[in-house]
Amino acid sequence: SSLLENNDGVYNKIVHVFAFCDGKLVIVNDGSEHWTPVGGHVESGETYDEAAIREVKEESNMEVLSIEFIGVQDVYEEKGISRQARYFCIVEPHGPFVSDPDGEIMEIKFIEPSEYKENFDWGETGERIMQKALELKKKYLS
Predict the structure, then answer these.
(1) How many helices (H) and strands (E) does the chain have?
(2) Beta carbons of 26 and 20 less than 8 angstroms apart
(3) pTM for this one?
């Protein structure tokens, strides 16, 4: 997406993926009480799209069947901009989740999309991202 091309002042590039498997939202846990959508940092030389697909594979052992860019959020911090790209995707398991190669994700679970706020609450921004993800899911399934 052209929104992601200019990275002037961006010191941190992150992706979060609202991944759906059989209608359920895939969320991950790092061993704390915090659950989040699949996501992580964009590696050097990698596009945001490539990072989103890689993170899904690493953190959930899922294959991306279809992916769509939702939007981007720039968070202005003292060091510069933390650019956070959001994606929607449809996934299917490669096999059972065993572990994240980076050792960061300890567990994954599949939830009803309507229950996401019980697991992570990103306020109004999160609500808008989820609405867009559900619209894309509906479009994908039709």
Answers:
(1) 2, 6
(2) yes
(3) 0.92
